[in-house]
């Protein structure tokens, strides 16, 4: 029995995995299986990163949960939250996820950098609108005396929602970078995998927001 | 025992022999008395001493084979010993797997029963013996001293904890500074004291004597001085002690308490409160500072930070 | 204006408050200047930049991690000796270290040993050996690897800067609030601690992601998970632990930062703060961290014990499952770090039992290693010496751990020196001996020559005896009620134990000095101990099948596996050292300056945040972000080594292999050992 033999070419490597390992939603227009393996490796790593990021959010959610009664005489959800505004934020962010989905689809079937870029631009606009509303909400809260240093509860609120906002901001910067890259490089496989990873990030933020909206806002205002 | 005469430091030569944990078993009672559960002075410490021995014996079953087996294998199967059998490809025997997983599992199961049974029964929150009414003592951890309030007796004392022998004591603890850990090794368990919260501890002293009490959680530059003296007194003597405390010219009120809130050890607090300059002294010596007329809700107010300096004016940031 | 430019930094920050602090700072400055001068003298800057700092080669990055680790180890050992000396003179005397200095020492000692000695050491070893073991050319994300190193190194640099400017935290390595809040610690010390930890935890998270993906995706054909060497298996467990355990630390330290910088109230005494949240999050990180530290050592021992017993690892499957169950269980036991926080006895009992469960797989491992030695042919090499001492000492320390897992007993010894003795007993014979075992084991693979054997033995004995002297007395002191972190004490019975512990600390200092001597002597004698062929220890796993040091591309052709211990099987069958039929060009990642840029910007940012120099903090983050974005526009991220070049390198090596006569294991410590093992006699 031979412990170690040489796989002379890359072909032997990819035989085991075949073309089925192509990442769904990704059309790299290449028949080189290695490119697909590389893309899958990148995306898999990004999934793991998201899991790690999820731990950060779960810590923030847990802290928020334990701090619900730490008002220290300061204002609470009923005095501070504006459900109308957060509902609009929710709609805007969910729509931005849809528009990103359109960008991904157009990338897969259309392969037109222009159309993909357009959808990404729409996503960016929606992301900015979301951030605008969030900043507006925060300033409203602060003017009502709900500033982060007021109580443990408000510290944990701003940490949780603020971290999400910070993620959206980073996502927006990333969207801008991808718009420029689409312009410079067109839809090459490198740009494609990056857009796909950005998409994962963006949808992930959407899911977190759904958690924030239900757990923080809806439950907070529940009688 | 903590006495006024510092004992002789044991001779170095003897103690070198004792540098292993097992050496502790040979320590004379005099060296451990008052400072360690190895010379228990109450039921909890006695139980802990007992559990320690039980667990050690159980552990020996797992550890001894390693202590014997490793040197044995190293010697028997050394490269130079060509007479020893050599089985380079042997990698698995089912019956050995049962032993390898089974022995530690059985030991852990035994110890788990100990934890779920006796140890859980005598956790700090649980009264030791619920038949008699316990003595209530409220403990406030400060920098770097301890304030003991006897709510039923309306007295308090600084860094001296007088206890009646044979009567269960129920401690309620809080801190008005950072987190600290209240510990009387000879009596039993330690427990944290945390600001804004109250923890509970049950102990009992069965023998009269003086015991070491201390904070074990680092809390600043006076940490090492933060010892207190536990005096376990027979019932009559304890009543005498309370009477003496009642006669103290100092009352525990906002003014005196704010003096205690300042950083410093008990000795510094005494010189600030009584205005007479004492010679620098031993942190292990009780300062004998008592307070009379302790208001009934004093401890609760401390938990609610009533005496803390006001938080800087809260303003809306621009 | 001055406060805008320099924040809180002023002349008062210079460490002239005590002679020892001034001396330590001078050592750091003189050391840095000395190293820079030396590099200038040998005209080494271009090589340092192009071969090391900007390199994305996992082997070089691994070596750089270990260099960081050694520098920090030296500092932390000196600090330990100072603390031991203070306790020797601290009986009813304030000694020579004032409480504040003493507190800084135990804080930096712990912080460095965990985050800047142990973590870089184990990540360095994994970086070097794991891709070689699984038959990969590099890790999945070579650039991320370099950036992770940059984050860790910038945290370490911040620790060093804290010696020279300002004072460090006095809150211990775990930094419990509210003591570390502004109310009790208004100085910049805690801020130094926060940013050093945050930087290192970010770096470690990225490393975890990188290693996990590498193991899942980059294994050579036929290298199924259950054919992976145990060391790589522990790499997988550790990286998963890192991915999930590091974020709680990041969150905890950043919340503490928000409390301190933005007047928030996560862990403050008033205003609704709750410090118990910090303690829970810290140990939610901290306990898995313990196994992040110990599993790599288990991995190393599994390799060295099998290799130096000339025998297949006993109970491979058991060992794998034991590692995995340790990793999983490590998330379920964090409460045992604070049994005394006032929760109910039921909760403590549950966590106590969960803690003891970990003792089962750990016990299994020790038994399996003993059975690996059983009926072997054991060579007492330095790595094997460490492994043997580990098994004996670790069994004792593990016993202490089971004792402390019992809440009833823990109430007695929590926060005492018993605890200190226990975790040093885990981390020195466990982690550090494992790392040193791996260091001696893989050093010839990394540099092409062996470490000096006799000095290695001296180091081993100094470490082992030093450890016993330094820490066994602490068990006794703890049971006698002596709290940890005591700068002064009042019980005469403690004194003799502290003297014995001091002797131990001196022996360990001797070990440190011998490590330096060993390195110098080994480098001098490198021609006599050259093992270019690459297999000095009759190795079993794949990393031994290539030259030492391995070529940049690791494997001329990707290996294919049919078995565990593949290289050993090949050697037995005479299939080793065969040239492939054809050579192909190999694509590797090109160098990138992003790593060093990250390091510099993160040092600047961490330093600026510590001292409230806001412009510099913003600038640092902007430059870093700009660097990352600029890099994403770079399309020339790969370099190709031509087939001819590969053939030349391989042919030269194979020629050396065939010219080298195999050396029997009996002579492997002699200069006859040129890296081709003849194997043990059946």
TrEMBL record, chain A:
Subunit structure: Heterooctamer of two A chains, two B chains, two C chains and two D chains.
Keywords: Cell membrane, Membrane, Transmembrane, Transmembrane helix
Name used for this protein in its record: Cytochrome bo(3) ubiquinol oxidase subunit 3
Pfam families linked: COX3
Gene3D superfamilies: Cytochrome c oxidase, subunit III, four-helix bundle
Task of the protein: Cytochrome bo(3) ubiquinol terminal oxidase is the component of the aerobic respiratory chain of E.coli that predominates when cells are grown at high aeration. Has proton pump activity across the membrane in addition to electron transfer, pumping 2 protons/electron.
Heme-copper oxidase subunit III family profile domain sequence ranges: 42-221
From TrEMBL, chain B:
Major location category of this protein: membrane
Key words, A-Z: Cell membrane, Electron transport, Membrane, Transmembrane, Transmembrane helix, Transport
PROSITE patterns per record: COX2_CUA (PS50857), PROKAR_LIPOPROTEIN (PS51257)
Alphabetical list of InterPro entries matching this protein: CcO_II (IPR045187), CcO_II-like_C (IPR002429), Cupredoxin (IPR008972), CuRO_UO_II (IPR034227), Cyt_c_oxidase_su2_TM_sf (IPR036257)
GO MF terms, alphabetically ordered: copper ion binding; cytochrome-c oxidase activity
SUPFAM superfamilies xref list: Cupredoxins (SSF49503), Cytochrome c oxidase subunit II-like, transmembrane region (SSF81464)
Spans traversing the lipid bilayer: 56-77, 98-118
Gene Ontology biological process terms in this record: ATP synthesis coupled electron transport
Domain Cytochrome oxidase subunit II copper A binding: 132-244
Membrane topology: Multi-pass membrane protein
Subcellular location: Cell membrane
GO cellular component: plasma membrane
Similarity annotation: Belongs to the cytochrome c oxidase subunit 2 family.
Designated name of the protein: Ubiquinol oxidase subunit 2
Gene that encodes it: cyoA-2_2
TrEMBL record, chain C:
Localization per Swiss-Prot or TrEMBL: Cell membrane
Xref: Pfam families: COX1 (PF00115)
Keywords noted in UniProt: Cell membrane, Copper, Electron transport, Heme, Iron, Membrane, Metal-binding, Respiratory chain, Transmembrane, Transmembrane helix, Transport
GO cellular component annotations of the record: plasma membrane
GO biological process, one term: electron transport coupled proton transport
Record's keyword annotation contains Ubl conjugation: no
Molecular function in Gene Ontology: cytochrome bo3 ubiquinol oxidase activity; cytochrome-c oxidase activity; heme binding; metal ion binding
Membrane topology: Multi-pass membrane protein
Domain Cytochrome oxidase subunit I profile: from-to ranges: 43-562
TM regions (residue ranges): 16-40, 61-82, 102-126, 147-168, 192-213, 233-258, 278-301, 313-335, 347-364, 385-405, 417-439, 460-482, 494-521, 609-630
PANTHER family the UniProt entry points to: CYTOCHROME BO(3) UBIQUINOL OXIDASE SUBUNIT 1, CYTOCHROME C OXIDASE SUBUNIT 1
Family: Belongs to the heme-copper respiratory oxidase family.
Protein name: Cytochrome ubiquinol oxidase subunit I
